[in-house]
Give the backbone structure.
Amino acid sequence: SQKIEQNSEALNIQEGKTATLTCNYTNYSPAYLQWYRQDPGRGPVFLLLIRENEKEKRKERLKVTFDTTLKQSLFHITASQPADSATYLCALPPFRRRSSNTGKLIFGQGTTLQVKP
Amino acid sequence: GAVVSQHPSWVICKSGTSVKIECRSLDFQATTMFWYRQFPKQSLMLMATSNEGSKATYEQGVEKDKFLINHASLTLSTLTVTSAHPEDSSFYICSAGLAGGYTGELFFGEGSRLTVL
């Protein structure tokens, strides 16, 4: 099944800058990829979904790209704020075939973002 | 958005006892729910898929007799950790997607932190 790699080191940036987080996957290219935010002691919250035929998706200050050749997704937060500090998780379906997935997701270990004022 | 509620949010129990965690979809029906476990500083590990009206599907390495899952209605799934031991101490999180949505987002509960003494 799929393997997901996210940078385990925390990302520290200054308020107002753009944060860029990376998600790499091995094996096959998924039909879609999702990004979630998780605060300490809480369940993840959905942010964005991007499909394999989409190169880029935006939502307010968030932007996600999906490069199926590089097997990589980049997650950008522009004009970052201290409130953006959290762990960001990349998630994919475990198998290529849709019938095997049935909504199931596997998650990367997440990258913790710290935005300093 | 859809709301998933978990109860209890935290529980402390003695070794050898059983603990039940409830997961409810409050404003939608979920034929499928997913149970995850998360250890500190690690990613969410999918434990099992809970199917309404049928047996749960467990991921490789997860003991079905240890983690009993019941999905008796379209809005409630329960996870029972039987004969809990300190190594079962973890953060358990449930999630659900909207019925029929193979590629949609997952809605997560707030999580239940289990500490086994």
